Amino acid sequence: MAHYPESLITELEERARQLRITSLEMIHRRAAGHPGGALSAAEIIAALFFHKLRLDPARPDWPERDRFILSKGHASAPLYAALAARGFIPAEELVRWGDLSCPLQGHPDRLKTPGVEMTSGILGHGVAIGAGLALSARLRGLHYRVYTLLGDGECQGGIVWEGALVAAKYRLSNLTAIVDCNGVQLDGPVHEVLPLEPFADKWRMFNWAVLEINGHNMRQILEALDTAAEIHDRPTVIVARTTKGKGVSFMENNAAWHGVAPNDEQLARALQELKGGA
Amino acid sequence: MAGVPMRQAFGLALAEYGAANPDVVVLDADTSSSTLSRFFAERFPERFFNIGIAEPCMVDVAVGLALGGHIPFVNGFAALLALRALEQVRTCVCYARTNVKLAAAFAGLSDYKDGPTHHAITDIAIMRALPEMTVIVPADAEEAAAWVPLVAEYDGPVYLRLSRDVAIPVHDRSTGLRIGRGIVRRPGGDVTIVATGTMVGRSLRAAEALASEGIEARVLEIHTVKPLDVELIRQAAEETGALVTAEEHTVIGGLGGAVAEALAQTRPVPLERVGISDAFARTAPDVDSLMDACGLAVTDVVAAAKWALARK
After folding, report:
1. Cis bond leading into A108, ω under 30°?
2. What is the pTM for the complete model shown?
3. What chain A residue is nearest to B89 in terms of C-alpha separation?
4. A66: CB partners within 8 A, 6+ apart
5. Closest chain B residue to the Cα of A71, Cα to Cα
6. Would you state the pLDDT for residue B3?
7. How far is B24 from B211, CA to CA, in rounded Å?
8. Is the peptide bond before A5 cis (omega within 30 degrees of 0)?
């Protein structure tokens, strides 16, 4: 496993901070979006888009590129922010998000947005579609890896586990699922709405390799992604324990911020907290 | 291929086409010995994926394969593909416009012995309401086989509606099939019968019966319910002045609905719809007696044609 210098960790943490800032600005501007799950996923998306994924923005159709499917499609803001930072889409589009003529949709649309591998928004599809894509790679002898990012509440839907069975049946070691376990969903805490624990055990019982990490610890994220790539007999799930609304004190662990945009004053306070350390 | 069940013709054609096109992959949901996708599975086991009894998941896995550049044929019972897997079809196939082919087996009443849970009498209405979807309903075994390469080589989502059973043969050799282009099966100037699927053969018989009474019925085969050949239907309305639609499907929203919508905007004429009335069917000893009992008999088409004529 690679040893990561502190400078890289710091750089990626800074990327995550920028994703948070840009996401909240985008959500505030169009007065719509999902702040809580955007903030919880910032480190994971930063690790993927600014380090792990093999991508070439000049060739979005490069056959060997790694594939990322945002199964929790409501975290579209940090995805768009990352795609803009990587040069897949012009940064000017971010401030037009929500406009009728803007190609960026509320939830990701693969036909309208370069770099979006798969349309998403209705929850639950990432694992099963990822399994199909991983099968396709194997059939063609291509060596790209398939990543999909889920929310924990999303795993209440049976289609997730149907897809998990398929990935296990075909031992799709080129598929890595990451679950942003922020513990909070639209109506309240996941453990109250519909309990999922013991969550990691469920994946183990489905014959997946399971890695449990702190989803805000950049070094742990990078090392888990590396470990997943070294497991050759089964798919891997990274159970990333996170905080919903991470980085903005009044949004943290608060279901009210699942799908509500901050007003001017709330945005100012949030940005003050996020920019305070800069 | 007279006397061959549609599913057998389709299954053999899929296996044969698999040899010609290495991009084709086939999925089934534990029904490969019913849909007869097993012919493909036996020849190309590395390109066949049995997903188990999980149609929504099967569609999603096919979507992934299509994203990777493969051409997946998803085999399952029509009732399950059009109902249980509908969200996957709407979101991940149609909206995302992935190149997935839904081979919807045992459609209409053709799973006569399993009863209404297994009948698919609303699938045309459901599928044709989805943007980006193409809906094709072959009339007989020959035609079902002929669609395989055409569907595979069309770039986009397709719902290919297949019967389990033997349909009255109407195609000698299915050449010249084109998506969206209807076929004049019989000329006639008094009334037009617009038929799809297994009702094409029955409608031709109805036209013979009408001819014996001196009524010349034109018969149009509309294999592609979406996109509909509006011009062919408009022309028939103009030239014959009365229409009948015939389909192994509810009278709501299927071919009858599509033709009614088209005529309302182009050439409104008297229209009678032959189909299953707004009710669930029942279990039966064979498909022909069930179709007859559900208002799809040749005599029902004849009676509808006379009604339409009388309303001119």
Report:
1. no
2. 0.97
3. A125
4. A52, A53, A54, A55, A144, A145, A146, A147
5. B92
6. 82
7. 45
8. no
pLDDT of amino acid B31:
98
**Which chain A residues contact residue B30 at CB under 8 A?**
none
Tokens of A163: 């897809």
Residue B148 in tokens: 């395989």
Place of tokens 């299915």: B174
**Where do the domains of chain A lie, and which CATH numbers do they carry?**
6-275 (3.40.50.970)
Among the CATH numbers 1.10.10.10, 3.40.50.920, 3.30.70.670, 1.20.120.160, which is that of B183-310? 3.40.50.920
pLDDT beneath 50: ranges in chain B: none
Closest by CA to A130, choosing from A59, A179, A79, is: A179
The total of other beta-carbon atoms located within 10 Å of residue A197's CB is: 12
DSSP A71: S
Q: Is A188 helix (H, G, I), strand (E, B) or coil?
A: strand
Domain segments of chain B as ranges: 6-161, 183-310
- Chain segment A190-221, per-residue pLDDT in tens: 999 999 999 999 999 999 999 999 999 999 99
A-B Cβ pairs (cutoff 8 Å, strict): 94
DSSP 8-state class, residue A38: H
- CB neighbour burial string for B252-277, b if at least 16 within 10 angstroms, e if fewer: ebbbbbbbbebbeeebebbbbbbbbe
- Domain B6-161 matching CATH 3.40.50.970: the answer reads yes
Degrees (nearest 5) of the Cα angle B192, B171, B244?
A: 15
Of A119, A135, A140, nearest to B64 by CB-CB distance is: A135
**What does the pLDDT read at residue A278?**
46
Each residue's pLDDT expressed in tens, for chain A with a length of 278 residues = 678 999 999 999 999 999 999 999 999 999 999 999 999 999 999 999 999 999 999 999 999 999 999 999 999 999 999 999 999 999 999 999 999 999 999 999 999 999 999 999 999 999 999 999 999 999 999 999 999 999 999 999 999 999 999 999 999 999 999 999 999 999 999 999 999 999 999 999 999 999 999 999 999 999 999 999 999 999 999 999 999 999 999 999 999 999 999 999 999 999 999 998 54
C-beta neighbour count of B303 within 10 angstroms: 16
Nearest by Cα to A185 from A258, A99, A277: A258
**Per the structure block, which two tokens stand in for B252?**
């709501």
Nearest CA in chain A to B67: A133
Contact criterion met (CB below 8 Å) for B290 and B258: no
- For testing contact with chain B, the best of A135, A138, A161 (most B CBs within 10 A): A135
What crossing angle do the helices spanning A218-229 and A6-30 adopt, rounded to 10°? 100
Decide whether B6-161 matches B183-310 in CATH topology.
Answer: yes
A140 touching B (Cβ < 8 Å) = yes
B111 by Cβ neighbours in 10 Å (0-12 / 13-18 / 19+) ranks as buried
Sheet containing strand B134-136, strands side by side? B48-50, B24-28, B71-77, B101-105, B158-161, B134-136, B224-226
Residue A56: Cβ within 10 Å count: 13
